[in-house]
Amino acid sequence: MSNSVISVISRFLEEYTTKTSNKLKVVDAYLFYILLTGALQFLYCLLVGTFPFNSFLAGFILCVGAFILGVCLRIQINPDNKGDFLSISQERAFADFLLAHTVLHLVVINFIG
Amino acid sequence: MAEHHSVSDSKHKASAVNIGASLSGNGRSSPAGTVGSSPTGALSTGIAQPAGWQSLLSFTILFLAWLAGFSARLFAVIRFESIIHEFDPWFNYRSTHHLTINGFYDFLNWFDDRAWYPLGRIVGGTVYPGLMVTAGLIHYVLNLLHITVHIRDVCVFLAPVFSGLTSISTFLLTRELWNQGAGLLAACFIAIVPGYISRSVAGSFDNEGIAIFALQFTYYLWVKSVKTGSVFWAIGCCLSYFYMVSAWGGYVFIINLIPLHVFVLLLMQRYSRRVYIAYSTFYIVGLVLSMQIPFVGFQPIRTSEHMAAAGVFALLQAYAFLQYLKDRLTRQEFQTLFFLGVSLAAGAVFLTVIYLTYTGRSTLYAKIHIPIIASVSEHQPTTWVSFFFDLHILVCTFPAGLWFCIKNINDERVFVALYAISAVYFAGVMVRLMLTLTPVVCMLSAIAFSSVFEHYLGDDMKRESPPIEDSSDEDDKRNSGNLYDKAGKVRKHVSEQEKTEEGLGPNIKSIVTMLMLMLLMMFAVHCTWVTSNAYSSPSVVLASYNNDGSRNILDDFREAYYWLRQNTEEQARVMSWWDYGYQIAGMANRTTLVDNNTWNNSHIALVGKAMSSNESAAYEIMRSLDVDYVLIIFGGVIGYSGDDINKFLWMVRIAEGEHPKEIRESDYFTPQGEFRVDKAGSPILLNCLMYKMSYYRFGEMQLDFRTPPGFDRTRNTEIGNKDIKLKHLEEAFTSEHWLVRIYKVKKEENRDPLVHSPRSSSSRQKYTSKKVQDPPRFSNGEL
């Protein structure tokens, strides 16, 4: 069983590195960085405690939000998904991404206290 | 005549063609398009651009709907004056007034020490600021442009203006769901439907006036973001959701309906990337936005009502990840391990969330068992009469619309079906929640009416132009199909059939159309009648009509409140039952002990205990609370049935809840179990403070030569205790029709009165002292 798990994972990684375009790989690297930041924040909260709870929430939700928005951007600019998003060009997807980030950052800065 | 007919038909067809992406129920877009071109060929001189006429017509109809909705809500203002109604709006008005004078930050951090007397109230953290901020902003902008409108007028007319905006957002939402015709019908319905008017008349300055607009607009943006899958619309939905959270506690409905929609879409195998983008963005950005309101605070991640949204979010992430992997790997690889393991984990997470929701603090059911909440009339279950009264024929046609939606299902119609079902359930539980049912009933009835009209109006045009081809086709078919050629008979058969088909069609269609139009006209008449008679009373001013039709205005409430305002000192404290707290604070501007916020049950129980005890015990409670004045409502002179004696049993019950040893509800009934105020009434009732204050000096008053003095018109009996003497209170004010009575609490006496007991001159003289030179001694009573 574990053999097939490892083989599946390795096959998946190999296909990933060959088939995905560079643009998507950049977005994936960004997503991985956000994931690390979020995990670090959560770890800090577990270790030190939740005292300024609104600050912890603000930071953590910002990480989750940025991750989600990055995933949405990746979905929208992926040429395989073009059929789903006929009215959304690549530039429009990026502009939406920027707008969403502006709103998210404004709210988080208000919340962080 | 013909030109009008073809103009309307071309617009009908233009609207049908313009739908584009949405699948409509008529399914006639293609033939309508081809037919549309032929009759307008000759008459196209008058209609240069059908699309232009269509937008003009839509704009005019929406403008007229706004105007109709605004005007229908003005009955109270025209009959009485521009005044804030009821009870809750007075608190909202006072807060808005505070906001306009002191500014936004002072309002957010306001600690009100003139309510809940010894305790005070943290207004900033216990109120939904959206309403006050909206009114304050409009007032600020108008005054900036030097249009000096008083804040009271802004507050009175805010709800009618927002009803027009609600019509427009309902139009947009229905247009996304069905087509433009249904959208216009829905806008017209919601402009005048009584279920919505009841909470948004001019003068009713309450959260629902702006919340229903925010609700419909949020739903419109949600449907748009599910349809397009664009982050822009999802962010718009989040901002509208933020406005809704600031406006009303009913935002919990949104945050549960949208996850339910996504969950049902997942179950129906309708998952798509657009849904993923829309919901993920909405959840995260909406979550952090909703926590900006101080009253909401950290509830979205703590309470059970918000857990469904989080659960669906986690489930959706897992599902999307699985879909992504499924696209990458082959079937066997995928099926071997990942699917079962990961979906089990996701399912377990979801089930624990559901479990926590159901065993956690479920506010709706717990509230029913607290007496204060149970005593509010709006929280009673709904009767079928209310459904018909508030919605008229819409409640009959709305299941038809629901069936149309389900028959032609797509992603957004799943949403409206879920909205309809959940709204019907909640409206059946509480009268107050009829308001959330009203928008969806308007939308679905509009869809039903629109489908009926399209079916019965649109067919006429189709039948006019191609009948020549049709009959020749049928002719050929019949000739070829017949084995033996009885030429005469066949031809007669064909021509008869032609005639009968054409004859049946227009008659039925015009009958049905006429019937539908009559129903709509009766609906409009009913709405106007209900608004005028049932929902336009300010509650602060009462009006009665004499035999000759002339109007008698009873302005006792305002008379009493203004007496308080002008004749008592600034810091005076007024004790009354909690119903009148907001009005006293708003109109009389005095400190109150308890008000309509009812957040502190023990404090209200103290007031109830004071009202139901005898005068001395009540005096102790009133001294400990520093009460200066007591205000009660007494309806015995005019027969007003909402007075404090009728509410008295609720006071006793609430007091009994906190002080069961001193107050017992059974003490106030006769031995036979009746609640009577005449001679046969319970002596504890006849000596309690409320009874004494209500009927003080009423025993001398004879209203009518046929009835004895002291005849209570509301209870229809002669009162039992006519000779009332008050020891610790004195009467300060009684209004013109004895509706409001104010008593001043006397300060304590300077010294206790001496008890005059008769001197006992018996045993003391028997003892005589044997010592004569003793110094004189002072002893009691002998000097």
Automatic annotation (TrEMBL), chain A:
Q: What's one GO MF term for it?
A: transferase activity
Q: In which pathway does it act?
A: Protein modification; protein glycosylation
Query: Can you supply a Gene Ontology BP term from the record?
Result: protein N-linked glycosylation
Q: Which UniProt keywords apply?
A: Endoplasmic reticulum, Membrane, Transferase, Transmembrane, Transmembrane helix
Membrane topology is: Multi-pass membrane protein
Matching Pfam families: DAD
Q: Where in the cell is it found?
A: Endoplasmic reticulum membrane
Per the record, the domain of life is Eukaryota
Cite the InterPro entries for this sequence. Answer: DAD/Ost2
Question: Metal-binding as a keyword?
Answer: no
Has keyword Membrane?
A: yes
GO cellular component terms attached to this protein's record? oligosaccharyltransferase complex
Span-the-membrane segments of this chain are 29-49, 55-73, 93-112
Q: How does it assemble?
A: Component of the oligosaccharyltransferase (OST) complex.
* Function statement: Subunit of the oligosaccharyl transferase (OST) complex that catalyzes the initial transfer of a defined glycan (Glc(3)Man(9)GlcNAc(2) in eukaryotes) from the lipid carrier dolichol-pyrophosphate to an asparagine residue within an Asn-X-Ser/Thr consensus motif in nascent polypeptide chains, the first step in protein N-glycosylation. N-glycosylation occurs cotranslationally and the complex associates with the Sec61 complex at the channel-forming translocon complex that mediates protein translocation across the endoplasmic reticulum (ER). All subunits are required for a maximal enzyme activity.
Similarity annotation: Belongs to the DAD/OST2 family.
* Protein's UniProt name: Dolichyl-diphosphooligosaccharide--protein glycosyltransferase subunit DAD1
Name the gene. DAD1
Automatic annotation (TrEMBL), chain B:
Which species does the entry assign this protein to? Oncorhynchus mykiss
Question: Which InterPro entries does the entry link to?
Answer: Oligo_trans_STT3, STT3-PglB_core, STT3_N
- One Gene Ontology term of the molecular function aspect: dolichyl-diphosphooligosaccharide-protein glycotransferase activity
Q: Where is this region: Disordered?
A: 464-483, 751-783
Q: List all membrane-crossing ranges.
A: 56-78, 122-142, 154-174, 180-198, 219-242, 248-268, 275-295, 307-325, 337-358, 384-406, 413-431
- Annotated pathway: Protein modification; protein glycosylation
Q: In the Enzyme Commission scheme, what number(s) does this protein have?
A: 2.4.99.18
Localization per Swiss-Prot or TrEMBL? Endoplasmic reticulum membrane
Quaternary structure and interacting proteins, as annotated = Component of the oligosaccharyltransferase (OST) complex. There are 2 OST complexes, OST-A and OST-B, which contain STT3A or STT3B as catalytic subunit, respectively. OST-A and OST-B contain common core subunits RPN1, RPN2, OST48, OST4, DAD1 and TMEM258, and OST-B contains either MAGT1 or TUSC3 as specific accessory subunit.
Instruction: Using the record's annotation, list all stretches that form the Oligosaccharyl transferase STT3 N-terminal domain.
Output: 57-444
The UniProt similarity line reads:
Belongs to the STT3 family.
UniProt KW Lyase keyword: no
Coiled coil: which residue ranges?
A: none
Question: What is the name of this protein?
Answer: Dolichyl-diphosphooligosaccharide--protein glycosyltransferase subunit STT3B
Topology class, membrane: Multi-pass membrane protein
Which stretches make up the STT3/PglB/AglB core domain? Answer: 573-630
Identify the Pfam families for this entry. Answer: STT3, STT3-PglB_core
Q: Which domain of life is it from?
A: Eukaryota
Q: Name one GO biological process term.
A: post-translational protein modification
The catalytic activity, as recorded, is: a di-trans,poly-cis-dolichyl diphosphooligosaccharide + L-asparaginyl-[protein] = N(4)-(oligosaccharide-(1->4)-N-acetyl-beta-D-glucosaminyl-(1->4)-N-acetyl-beta-D-glucosaminyl)-L-asparaginyl-[protein] + a di-trans,poly-cis-dolichyl diphosphate + H(+)
